[in-house]
Amino acid sequence: MTAQIIDGKALAEELRQSFKARVEALAAKGHRPGLVVILVGEDPASEVYVRNKVNGCLAIGMHSEKITYDAAVDQTTVLKKIAELNADPNIHGILVQLPLPKHFDEEAVLEAIAAEKDVDGFHAENVGALAQGNPRFIPCTPYGVMKMFEKGNVDLTGQEAVVIGRSNIVGKPMALLLINAGATVTVCNSRTKDLLAHTRRADILVAAVGKPRFVTADMVKPGAVVIDVGINRLPDGKLCGDVDFDGCKEVAGQITPVPGGVGPMTITMLLANTIEAAERKAG
Ligand code: GUN
Q: What dotted CATH number matches 139-263?
């Protein structure tokens, strides 16, 4: 059996096209959605992500700008900028690209962003709202995965879902969304004892572990939906996910590729959250 491929690139494009009318309707009322992305330091991967976020906004008529700081900048300078952006009526979303340099207190920076402009959904208030089942902003990557389930008509109710990875950015919010959707959820990590026993039970398997081709075909239940959140750069420069795609596609029922799977959905949901923030403000 060969799995059905869930085409994130096509779904992302379809959604982005549908956002244009919402952006123009807001702009006509004087509320063109605006996103500021703050980048500290020169991590090459982060630079690519940030450029794609800004360009993704501009391509659908939103306002977007990047603010960059040298890695040695002090936290107070960044906090002062965030306070300015919190007060700027033309800015609806503020995102600080992670990871930050080691001398930063990441939590303090994320908490400084006004909760109503926290389009990443990382502010404690927004994490709490998600945990309570009343999300205000859903973190972009797991939000994109949920949209893919929706598109693929995957009914999550009562399904065994296994998430490999426990990060604040993907694993934890992914688990909360699956719980809220009625799945039976297990959160594993790369060191989980007898990981195979968990993954083989999974009707839904989400890999967000950050290790190239970590999920192999023997770990997948026949017919399972396999979601690959990994973006790993191999020594030859090629991108590769956390899932051994070629092996797993022979076992899974549905599977996401890398590239062209979850990746394009992440930025799409960032655009969705920023438009949503602007719509709430416009009333
Ligand atoms: N670094 C990796 N993924 C993300 C993300 O979704 N948001 C932010 N702010 N930083 C990231």
A: 3.40.50.720
- C-beta 64 within 6 A of ligand 1: no
Can you give the pLDDT of all 283 residues of the chain as single tens digits?
Answer: 799 999 999 999 999 999 999 999 999 999 999 999 999 999 999 999 999 999 999 999 999 999 999 999 999 999 999 999 999 999 999 999 999 999 999 999 999 999 999 999 999 999 999 999 999 999 999 999 999 999 999 999 999 999 999 999 999 999 999 999 999 999 999 999 999 999 999 999 999 999 999 999 999 999 999 999 999 999 998 999 999 999 999 999 999 999 999 999 999 999 999 999 999 999 9
Domain 30-117 is found in CATH 3.40.30.10:
no
Range list for CATH 3.40.50.10860 in the chain: 30-117
Q: Which of 7, 81, 97, 118 is catalytic?
A: 97
CATH 3.40.50.720 in the chain, residue ranges: 139-263
* Residue 64: strand pairing partners: 35
Distance of alpha carbon 205 from alpha carbon 219, whole angstroms: 10
Q: 187: helix, coil or strand?
A: strand
Angstrom distances, CA of residue 163 to CA of 46, 175, 189, 211, 228: 24, 7, 8, 14, 10
Distance (Å) from CA 2 to ligand 1 centroid: 32
218 catalytic? Reply is no
